[in-house]
Amino acid sequence: MAGTATMLYAHPQAHPRRDACLDWLQMITGACLVIFMWCHMLLVSSVLVGPALMDAIAWFFEATYLVQAGGPVIFVCFLAHFILAARKIPFTAGDQEIAWTHARMLRHRDTWLWMVQMVTAMFILVMGAIHMWVVLNDLPITAERSAARVASGGWLWFYFILLPLAELHVSVGAYRIGVKWGFISRQNRPKAKRIELCMFVVFMVIGVGTLLVFNHMATVLSAGRGV
Amino acid sequence: MGRNIHFEIFRYNPQDTASIPRMQTYFLEETINMTLFIALTRLREEQDPSLVFDFCCRAGICGSCAMVINGRPGLACQTQIKNMPGHISLHPLPVFKIIGDLSVDTGVWFREMYRKTESWIHTRAEVDPTLEEARMDNAVAEEIYELERCIECGCCIAACGTANLRPDFMGAAALNRIARFMIDPRDERSEREYFDIIGTDFGIFGCMGLLACEDVCPKQLPLQDQLGFLRRKMGFAALRQIFKTSRPA
Lengths: 227, 249
Ligand code: HEM
Ligand code: SF4
Ligand code: SF4
Ligand code: FES
What we know:
The complex is a heterodimer of chains A (227) and B (249). By secondary structure, chain A is mostly helical. Chain A has eight helices and no strands. Chain A has helices at residues 18-45, 51-63, 66-86, 93-106, 109-136, 143-151, 155-180, 189-224. In chain A, helix 5 (109-136) crosses helix 7 (155-180). Chain A starts with 17 loop residues before the first helix and ends with a helix. With 249 residues, chain B is α+β, with helices and mostly antiparallel strands. Chain B is built from nine helices and seven strands. Chain B has helices at residues 36-47, 106-117, 138-148, 155-158, 161-165, 171-182, 191-198, 212-216, 223-246; strands at residues 4-11, 22-29, 66-69, 72-75, 87-91, 97-100, 103-105. In chain B, a hairpin with a 2-residue loop joins strand 3 (66-69) and strand 4 (72-75). In chain B, helix 2 packs parallel to helix 6. The mean pLDDT of chain B is 92. Chains A and B meet through helix 1, helix 4, helix 5 and helix 7 of A and helix 2, helix 5, helix 8 and helix 9 of B. The structure holds protoporphyrin IX containing FE (HEM), iron/sulfur cluster (SF4) (2 copies) and FE2/S2 (inorganic) cluster (FES). Residues 159-163, 171-172, 207-213, 227 of chain B line the site of one iron/sulfur cluster.
């Protein structure tokens, strides 16, 4: 028997539920980050309504210590999510070649979306970490300080790159969770794809608008100070 | 007058040490109602008797003619040339062992799949062959039949990114097989026993939800819905086991 079986592998596992637990954690950390990103967008884009609103929201989160406590929690979630998801990323040169050849051969949207998730993840890992470090080391958050930061140095470009990467990753990730756990079925998959695309477009528009407002605010503020 | 179809076909004979993998070009005039199976048969009969490919039923039932057609795994006998562009490239299915040119060995893979999933009804019930078979609810029978329609062509495996990266990933065909026995009231396997088969990264937790399997299956099996169902079921099975074992006896 063993002579004919070409696919006999031994998979010793100290903990029989290890993979199940890791899969749960990957999904939960991912879902937390998706929800966080939506809330985060609400905070940041509130400046579109008025700087006073953004200041008020930021003040609320700081007075209740949600930023001081939540910030590091999100940071841990962020790193944990990366480590968990990295289990499935083809990191070796050989595996990379298999993955890209396969995606090019198949010309299949969902397979390409996975490649998108893989690539955006690498950039978000570095840029998201820099961003969180800078913002959390410069509390309190106010519209004026954010505006000054966005307009200084290369930060505007930094955000113009991070924004689409993060929004792509978040909307594809949300869709993927739905597919994997069966919330998205064969029947509602076309609708889910449309929602995924809408989500991406809406958040991009809000995000770009926010960045432009920050940039404009900074110009007005520095002109007001006669700089 | 039909089109003059330009074929590019993968050629390789692993038995011949001098053979190197290459693409070979053929031209063939399209005829009415021509399928890819007919085209390949004519190429072999009229132009190149050394061309190797598999077929048997030529009606989408046996699953032996699966190959990569313009990048997508599919059945040659179910591919109408009139729906195809004038340039067709053909490759053998990846993941499986190549026999020659477009022919791969899906048999060994699927036998191993039967063994891993223990693809038979596990029951302690004594069957009396003289009696009428026990009746099954029609709705359940149809649900099982829907998943039984798999022709074991291997398209879902060849299209799966995970299966291409990890040779020991079970793939949609095997996971679908487990789902089929789970809904069969005659199979007495417990949730725990199913979990031991598919509750790892080589089973349902290895699936990345890319849905290529769903999108290429020539029999349109509801693979996406089975994968979602299994992940939820096995995910909750793990939680139940954890909370049961951590409770004091
Ligand atoms: C606790 C963690 C975080 C806090 C407190 C925070 C806070 C902020 C603030 C105040 C801004 C306005 C610009 C600035 O002040 O520099 C901003 C913008 C931005 N953040 Fe975060 N952030 C956090 C985590 C993240 C993460 C994890 C990501 C990406 C994965 C991210 C992506 C972005 C993007 C793309 C923008 C630009 C959006 C826009 O203005 O259109 N942030 N964030
Ligand atoms: S599930 Fe579909 S694609 Fe996969 S082996 Fe069965 S019939 Fe072929
Ligand atoms: S959904 Fe899962 S089984 Fe199907 S192709 Fe994707 S990774 Fe493979
Ligand atoms: S020859 Fe049987 S499925 Fe194509």
